[in-house]
Amino acid sequence: MSATSVLIHLFGEIALLLWGITMVNSGVQRAFGSDLRWILGMALRTRLQAFLAGVGVTTVLQSSTATALMVSSFTAGGAVDIVPALAVMLGANVGTTLIVQVLSFDVSLIFPVLIFGGFMAFRRGKTSRTKDLGRVAIGLGLMLLSLHLLSETIHLIENSAVLKELLASIASDPLILVLLSAIFAWIAHSSVAAMLLIMSLAAAGVIGPSAALVMVLGANLGSAFNPFLEAMGGDPAKIRVPVGNLATRVIGCAVALPLIDPILTAMALIDPNPSRLAANFHTIFNVALAVLFILPLPWIAKLLVRLFPEKLQASDPGVPQYLDKDALDTPSVALSNAAREVLRMVDTVEAMLRSSQDLFREDDISRVDQVSRTDDVLDRLFSAIRRYLSSINHEALSEAEAKRLSDILAFAINLEHIGDIIDKNLMELAAKRIKNHMRLPKDSLEDITSMHAKLLEHLQLAASVLMFQDIGSARRLVSEKERFRDLERAVAQKHLDQLRSGRTAGDTSAIQLDIVRDLKRIEAHIASTGHSLLEQSGELKPSRLTS
């Protein structure tokens, strides 16, 4: 086979390997993404817990970049300290070595079983999780198949004088080996793929054991560049964890590179097999970095904070704070970001409701314009959230995540409608009252204040239902809607009675009735969050709650 044919086969088999890794990652994300994120969030308390969580989550995901995105969702805005975040990355680097350890043994012959079993699970599975696990099995099978094909193709290099001479010249320069290996890991977005290629080259004797260990250093260095490059260009504080991760790799490579020969001699005593040698060095290197850096992490964190302070910007409430575009390929993180941004919409609506309540007592016409500007802020936040949700990788969504996306978007739409009711209806009534010097009766003001208070309470309850999916809170929210409707009817009837008896002016009464009607519309939008959850759980009949 000619050198060109060998290279074409090599590129195709590497692409198959990368596709297998992608399938495993997306399958795990769909099946267990929210669970893994919960585990990671619970572990971000101590360095040891964070380290172990990083090992476990990354072993399952086979992607330290995906783990880094999850960590960034917790560290955004200072919710989690940088020290446990750095500990997670030390663990993530160790986690990537475990799958390499497994694949360093001859397990290629089980790929037909994995692909067939995965296909059957994907086609015949009755639940979305079963189908996703089928995707994982197919991905693992494709990885093993690609390794089998790679080993056969790489053996052909021995018969190509051109390729043998090229590789021999490259292998003679350690710095070039590190650079090429790092570039491959960076382009592939996977140290696992780089390691498997290195192990295949070493097993075939195309590169020597010393060159293989040097390339392992390059693979570790290259995989640290992806999170670093993705974090560049935004808030300097966002780049702290990627820089810390990259710095530990650079230091480790700088120390290990001059010591490759004595390291090789010592490790050959454990297992002289070239493929296993590379895998073992990969694991030992990352474990050594974890042991070396986990204790001084607080000092490293202080240095990173000093080097990369938070960007101080003029506050613009309409600019989203949590919609991280780098998280769009990790649905569990992206949905969490969107939910956090929706809570900012809740705060904005709450501020508008409080202003609305005051404007039926006070005569400050300037506050009407202020509420209108606040509605513009709400509209901008809604537009940003809607665009963000539409940009999420929908192919990677599990069934539960797709439903979660729908719930978040529906809640945001309801909040935007509430803002429009306040701005275009209630503020028009408030402005009319102020311009015509109308005074609402004391008992009417008390009714309006009471209804506003209920709306504010129900708004917070609806936000709780969205965030925690609590059935009890959803039932209470729907029940409160019925009570609010009774209150609205009672208030409306009282105004009609006052109008018939001549105890209130017709214009004033009309304003009061319109206010009550609009507040009822707002309550309907708020309560719909509870309706949605109860319908999903089968606890809501067409017209009323079940017992």
Automatic annotation (TrEMBL):
Topology of the protein relative to the lipid bilayer: Multi-pass membrane protein
Principal cellular location given in the protein's record: membrane
* Transmembrane annotation, as ranges: 6-28, 48-71, 98-121, 133-151, 166-187, 194-219, 246-270, 277-301
Q: Write down the Gene3D superfamilies for this protein, in alphabetical order.
A: Phosphate transport system protein phou homolog 2, domain 2 (1.20.58.220)
Q: Which GO terms describe its molecular function?
A: sodium:phosphate symporter activity
Highest taxon, organism lineage: Bacteria
Entries under Pfam families matching the protein = Na_Pi_cotrans, PhoU
Q: Where is the PhoU domain?
A: 342-422
Subcellular localization, per the record?
A: Cell membrane
User: Which Gene Ontology cellular component terms are annotated?
Assistant: plasma membrane
Q: Does the keyword Protein transport apply?
A: no
Q: Give the UniProt record's GO annotations in the biological process aspect.
A: sodium-dependent phosphate transport
What keyword terms does UniProt attach to this protein?
Answer: Cell membrane, Membrane, Transmembrane, Transmembrane helix
> Is the keyword Transmembrane in the record?
yes
- State the protein's name: Phosphate:Na+ symporter
